[in-house]
Amino acid sequence: MTSSPLSSRIQVDNQLDPRSSEVDLIELRSSLDADPRRIPSKYFYDRRGSALFEKITQLPEYYPTRAEKALLLEVADEIGHLTGAQEIVELGAGAATKTRVLLNALQRTGRLRLYVPFDVSESEVRRVAEELAGEYPDLQVHGIVADFVHHLAAIPPGSPRLVMLLGSTIGNYSPKQAVGLLSRLSQRMASGDFFLLGADLIKDLDVLERAYNDSSGITADFNRNILRVVNQIAAGDFNPRLFTHSAIYNRHFQRIEMHLAATESHRVELPEIDLTMDIQMGESIRTEISCKYDRSRIETMLEASGFHLTRWFTDQEQLFALALAQKG
Q1: Architecture of the domain spanning 2-15+63-202+293-327
Q2: If the chain, 328 residues long, is cut into consecutive pieces of 10 residues, what is the mean pLDDT of each piece?
Q3: pTM exceeding the 0.85 threshold for the entire prediction
Q4: Closest Cα partner for 181 from 306, 9, 8?
């Protein structure tokens, strides 16, 4: 671990082991060599991918970001008073755009003292830390550069606190993976601390599929960009133009599945992971799952992970939910 105080109110710890790249290469090879083939969705977010996703959040078809932020604006003060939190820990903090709504709410209670952004991008953690320290003169920021799937032990001790996982990020994990992640998180929290989970709700099929197949093609560009990232990591020769984007709703698993389907048969070489793939025309590579939920499914998942659901907030259209839970 490397730790660097940027000022008296900002500290950033980097927990990423340089050897983690070797683990990533093993995981990437295993995923691409599986049947069916997959690419871990974390590879979406290079600089170009992150910029494309920001564009996606502003599309008329893509409701989750708008719905979640509007809901946060409605309920932030109630969450601030209910939790009595003095600290916020945010997993997958990114640009912390929606976080400010809750920071403002805690500041209005007079209790806000610490924000812990947890993200894999060191440049993003440092930028957010400096921005927020400037916006909130009394706020301490302790940034953690790490992968929250593997490095939850890096969260510094403290209480009373609110831990957040927003943006329906939990939907990118299978039910078993999600319970495993939330159970490990619960073990890192003090009894009585609160957890706020953002979850996309089950809804009309047309609304769901339009959100992931926008008419302007930005989601398709975002999806194909993952192949460029894999090329950089594995010295590969994927040609993104030979793949078409599709996102379909799997009713059995209640999730959107994003795929890239080959438009012609061709060979792909990935020397850094010692893999050669003969891709057949029509063969699909799955790049993401996005599970959708109802209250019962979320409550069951939280209870299995050591949390008790205390409040369930949804918008009028029942597009999105915020589940506020407490560590037992």
Answers
A1: 3-Layer(aba) Sandwich (3.40)
A2: 71 78 88 95 88 92 96 97 97 89 95 94 89 94 90 91 96 96 96 97 95 96 97 96 97 97 98 96 97 98 98 97 96
A3: yes
A4: 306
